[in-house]
Specification:
CATH class: Mainly Beta
Helix content: 10-25%
Distance between the termini: 78 Å
Strand content: 35-45%
Shape: elongated
CATH superfamily: Immunoglobulins
Order of helices and strands: HHEEEEEEEE
Number of domains: 1
């Protein structure tokens, strides 16, 4: 019986290691720890401009934004958090570390419902990067009035 349990544990561990998603997901505590240890800092290159103008949308539209980056250092890049500057923008924080030489993406959505006119929005990224750990991603969008509004 004891051998059976050991074999079952080994099978479960092996199956888990062979899953299609082999990426390591970090806890919030692990992400925060990476920010404190400067020996694990790396560098980031923003492949898109950190300022983007998305032109015009109709009020009520949901605008999807994304910013591409590359880990140009020799340590894993850990995005600890991505915080939107307001409640009308939702941001996604990458859950896995980005290996040296690999690329990633910061995604967000802006809900233009109840907004009109020129909108200037930000998302704040915190990562284990040399020099500064805080990066601001900015986008502008012009929200038109709802059809029938004057």
């Amino acid at each position: 019986m004891k051998n059976f349990v050991i074999i079952m544990v080994a099978i479960v561990c092996f199956a888990g290691c062979q899953s299609a998603d082999n990426k390591v997901k970090l806890t919030d505590e692990q992400k925060e720890s990476a920010l404190k240890d400067s020996s694990n800092y790396t560098t980031i290159q923003w492949l898109d401009s950190t300022f983007r103008d998305f032109g015009k949308v109709k009020q009520g539209d949901v605008l999807e934004v994304s910013y591409h980056f590359k880990n140009t250092g020799n340590k894993p890049l850990i995005i600890s958090k991505v915080e939107p500057g307001c409640g009308c923008t939702v941001a996604e924080t990458p859950k896995e570390p980005i290996a040296p030489g690999e690329s990633g993406e910061i995604k967000g959505t802006f809900d233009s419902n109840g907004k009109a006119g020129s909108q200037h929005k930000s998302m704040f990224v915190t990562a284990n990067t040399k020099g500064k750990q805080d990066h601001e991603l900015v986008f502008d969008v012009e929200v038109g009035k709802k059809p029938g509004e004057k």
